[in-house]
Amino acid sequence: MENLLTLALEAHNGDRNHHRRYEFQIGRDLFAIWTLSIRYGRIGAPLREENFSSDTVEDLKQIAVARLHRRANAKRRIGTDYTVVEKIESGGTAMDDWFPKASLSHFSPSCSTSG
């Protein structure tokens, strides 16, 4: 898979011993089909992984935005917000093409960015 975009989020709540990671990787496979890989779980433990693929970008965008929206409501569930810890854009694929600015505005802007 050619990785074109990575967005990684983390949430840490020491009082509740919650340390979570949520990562999106977007790319294309050998047949130019769009792929979305979502990895998530407790930091320090093996992460779970879900993989999606589609000929159309819109199908995968809907999944990605819905999952990001759920992370924006984490404070109610786990007692802390997720923050962006990594943003990588390559191959002409922009973060704004996949995640609306309004969706990303819920998360701390401090992170490492590559392009």
Notes on the protein architecture:
- With 115 residues, the protein is of the alpha+beta class.
- It contains four helices and six strands; from the N terminus they run ββββααβααβ.
- A six-stranded mixed sheet has the order 4-3-2-1-5-6, with helices on one face.
- 16% of the residues are buried.
- The model has no long low-confidence stretch (mean pLDDT 88).
Please provide a brief summary of the model.
The chain is α+β, with helices and mostly antiparallel strands and 115 residues long. 25% of the residues lie in helices and 43% in strands.
Low-confidence segments, given as residue ranges, are none
User: Helical amount among residues, as a percent range?
Assistant: 25-40%
**How would you classify the helix and strand content by structural class?**
alpha+beta
Multimerization status: single chain
Radius of gyration: 14 Å
Largest sheet: 6 strands, mixed
* Strand residue content: 35-45%
Count every beta strand, where a strand is a DSSP E run of 2 or more residues: 6
Globally, the shape reads globular
Order of helices and strands: EEEEHHEHHE
Number of helices: 4
Please give the alpha-carbon distance between the first and last residues. Answer: 18 Å
Strand order of the largest sheet: 4-3-2-1-5-6
Mean pLDDT: 88
